Amino acid sequence: MPPPLDGYTVVDLSSGIAGGYCTKLLADGGARVIKVESPEGDSLRRWSASGADVDPVAGGALFSFLAGSKHSVVADPADLGPVERLLGAADAVVWSPGSRLAETADLHPDRIRERHPGLSITAITPFGLHGPWRDRAATEFTLQAWSGGALGIGRGEQHRAPAHVGGQVGDWLAGAYAAALTLAVRAGGGAQLLDLSMLEAQILGLTYYPVTYYQMLDKPWRTERRPTVPGVAEAADGLVALGCGTAQQWFDLCAMSGHQEWIDETSELSITEQANLHAEELFAWLRNERVEDVRDLATAFRIPNSPVGNGENVTQMDHFVQRGIFVRNPRDGFTQPGHPYRLAGIALRDPEPAPRLGEHTEHYAAAQLPVPPRTDQPKPLPFEGLRVLDMTTFWAGPSCTHILAMLGAEVIHLESTPRPDGTRLIAGIPVSEPLWWERSPIFSGLNTNKKSVTLDFQTEAGRDLLRRLIADSDVVVENFTPRVIDQLGLDYDSVRALREDIVMVRMPGFGLDGPWRDNPAFAYIIEDAAGLSWLTGYPDRTPYEPYSVGDPNAGIHALTALMLALEHRRRTGQGALVEASMVDAALNVAAEQVIEYSAYGALLQRQGNRGPVAAPQNIYQVSGIDEFGRDDTWVAIAVADDRQWQALVAALGHPAWASAPELATAAGRRARHDRIDAELAAWCRPRSADEVVETLWPAGVPVAKVMQPHRQTELAQLEHRGFFEHVEHPAAGAAAHSTLPIRLSTGPDRYHRAPAPLLGEHNAEVLGRLGVDAAQLAALEADGVIGTEPAMGGRKKATT
Predict the structure, then answer these.
(1) Distance between the two ends of the chain, CA-based, in angstroms?
(2) Judging by beta carbons within 10 Å of its beta carbon (0-12, 13-18, 19+), is residue 108 exposed, middle or buried?
(3) Where are the beta strands (DSSP E) in 455-519?
(4) Which range has the worst mean pLDDT, 66-80, 239-253, 660-674?
(5) What is the dihedral of CA 603, 547, 302, 470, to 10 degrees?
(6) Residue 123: which H helix or E strand, with range?
(7) What is the C-alpha to C-alpha distance for residues 708 and 633, in angstroms, rounded to an integer?
(8) What's the CATH fold of domain 615-701?
(9) Cβ neighbours of 524 (radius 10 Å)
(10) How confident is the model at residue 708, as a pLDDT?
């Protein structure tokens, strides 16, 4: 059986990581990807984060990973006839600025759409194709600052500059969103212009619904930067990662470390605040323990834990070795991660060698290229008619199903009264308050348009209704640990017995097999294990955890895998099991570390706010008291090439220090980064953030305010694109809600069509569809099988 996207032709007019990763995921799914390049080739061919010498014709190691299985055609920007011929034979085009070819006026996405209205076009740009910021300079680093992601969920330390998330993670996130949403558009008939904003992708991937939180609760999620406790800690023989995502896990950590006296179930302090009170003693205990001993203890106590991965050690971790996560690059022989998901019984394309520059030019010049059938009536809501049983909780799983709901699917969010969705419980609202469980801004941000049904699976009646719900659904998505699904008897074979063509998406933290399969996993533990934490923070201390990327990154990769499975079902009538583990997705967006070490022997290191893309690149303090009364206001500046450096020098007024000839090249600037930082810091400090931005940005220098995440609505570009929509919730009140990082040429006009559901709000509607009448509903509620309030004292014992 050929891969699901066999016969789907994509013209790749992108350059860089975001477009490269998007089209890699499409090629892995079986698409024919024709990479059309200027004569000098994609700039990524010349890239190495460690500065290794690379062959610009063959391309370096990262290019070899991202361009595997693609074809390369060289086109002259002065003669677009060959490109036009390819566009006429394609199903889709992926475009980004950054090359002479793509920036030719006739290849702007709007112009392509005029000539090819039946073509699906995905445009990946920093801010979107239109709006007041559409032509402003940006790098992944400055986009993090604008997004609020440089501050994250209180990441860092208050006494030093905020620290961005390393590894160019925003580019990888943008590519993952582009792939998933390109396939979503395809499911609705294609022929859309999909306008993706990398800024908006970073907001969704690096922050945690901060605007909704702020507007509903009248306070920001965090007001200070502080390291996670325990987070990434020093043990006697290396680094170990431990996390406490719930009160019970904090209590268990207290017991595990021999400090039961720290347990205070009556405290009004949050878990984070309690942990910080005892940080020094906890870290002192860990420094005397071996990594494996700590992990064995933590696993026994069911506390999330992992080793701390990097480019050197992650390929040797027993779990990844046993699961065969890493594979050999077919062209250059280095080590790279395999597919970010597994589809049982569905072939994904095995990696094929990346092409040399122009390797397929002559082939396509001579080839007969049939024009595919076109449609000019795509559905604004591509998933209308698709019924999804959403057995997920917290962030990773609901972020996947939320996109389905925003794009038209009927999504039934399954909870129980003893165990409602965990995000209902993290708003910090006292249980004495009316409807406290309905007032979580995080739950609201993740679950608009969904329906809520409560079922207690610990009862036979609940399990019977669950089986009937499954039989009535097209898709089931779950993100429990594997042992929980095993205990429920809901493995794929059991689910398929209820509906033969069902697609089941399982989203365990560490996969369905391997020694870590039953370990609990939160976003930060996934980040630690995969290497995302390793590159985040300062070299003089343990890494900071991004504390965000692991969950939404898993959700968007799961959506891509689901799209592939649904396409397989459309072609064959067969259902599928999708295994979309969080860590496999994280290892793919952290791939560059493994690739650089395997190909060049270079272990990438965290550098604070410096990075391989730009020099200078840093966060500088400016004048101004922030909203919390602190002298704590910052800007981000990044100079990615010589042209931007000259623009910076001119904007600064040509100071003598900046005119030194040794600073005219990137290598010279990188070698003298300390000196440049000192000069820029001195220039920025007496000026306001607005003054710095208004001086540098119009000159073409990538610059940004380091935004507090809850201030995202103040950005003019987001307002222009309608990224936030006003949602009225019957219990939580009104607030702005983020949408998707895309604008589609045919709509929809609105993504949030209904607020997040009340607990069990749709029990009668959904169960009634299964034949459950009013008397039976009343009996189920009396027995505690269903309900509309959390069962704080435990479910009433069932009589069935």
Answers:
(1) 46
(2) middle
(3) 475-478, 503-506
(4) 239-253
(5) -110
(6) strand 120-125
(7) 10
(8) formyl-coa transferase, domain 3 (3.30.1540)
(9) 29
(10) 97
Give the C-alpha separation, 175 to 158, whole Å: 32
Classify 207 as helix, strand or coil. Answer: coil
What is the maximum span of the chain, computed from C-alpha positions, in angstroms?
Answer: 85
pLDDT at position 800 over 60: no
pLDDT recorded at residue 798: 40
Q: Position 99: which residue type?
A: S
Check if the beta carbon of residue 9 is closer than 8 Å to that of residue 32: yes
CA angle at 238 for the pair 233 and 240, rounded to the nearest 5°: 40
Report the SS3 class of residue 470: helix
Tell me the one-letter amino acid at 192.
Q
Q: For residue 230, say if its preceding peptide bond is cis, omega within 30 degrees of 0.
A: yes
Q: What is the CB-side half-sphere exposure of residue 383 using CA atoms within 13 A?
A: 25
Our CA dihedral for 605, 607, 611, 617, rounded to 10 degrees, sits at: -170
In contact, 744 and 194? CB cutoff 8 Å: yes
Query: For the sheet containing 120-125, what is the strand order?
Result: 71-74, 32-37, 9-13, 92-95, 120-125, 193-197, 742-744
Q: What tokens were used for 129?
A: 């194709």
Identify the CA nearest to 503 among candidates 665, 652, 671, 386.
386
Pairing of strands 410-415, 387-391: parallel
How much is the pLDDT for 371? 84
The token pair that represents 105 in the structure block: 């006026």
CA–CA dist 196, 630 (Å, integer): 36
Contact 606, 537 (CB under 8 A): yes
Region 632-658: what's the mean pLDDT? 98
CB atoms within 10 A of CB 88: 16
Per-residue tokens: 632: 């704590």
* pTM score, whole prediction: 0.97
Locate the domains of the chain by residue range: 244-303, 387-467+748-800, 615-701
Query: Which three-class secondary structure state does DSSP give residue 413?
Result: strand
CA-based nearest residue to 240, from 318, 307, 319: 307
- 691 vs 623: CA distance, rounded Å: 10
Which residue, among 479, 447, 442, has the nearest Cα to 582 in the 3D structure? 479
Q: For Cα atoms 183, 144, 37, give the angle at the middle one, nearest 5 degrees.
A: 50
Give the pLDDT band (50/70/90) at residue 578.
very high
Beta-carbon count within 10 A of 135 CB:
11
790 upstream amide cis, omega within 30 of 0: no
200 closest CA partner among 633, 562, 609, 720: 720
CA distance 31 to 183: 11
The pLDDT tens digits for 195-228 are 999 999 999 999 999 999 999 999 998 899 988 8
- Measured CA to CA, the distance from residue 36 to residue 81 in angstroms comes to 12
Q: Per residue in 752-775, is it b (16+ CB within 10 Å) or e — as a string? A: beebbbbbbbbbeebbeeeebeee
Question: What residues contact residue 255 under an 8 Å CB cut-off, 6+ apart?
Answer: 263, 301
pLDDT attached to residue 587: 98
421-467 pLDDT, tens digit per residue, is 999 998 888 888 999 999 999 999 999 999 999 999 889 999 999 99
| Token code pair at residue 309 | 């991965």
Contact between 336 and 326 (Cβ < 8 Å): yes
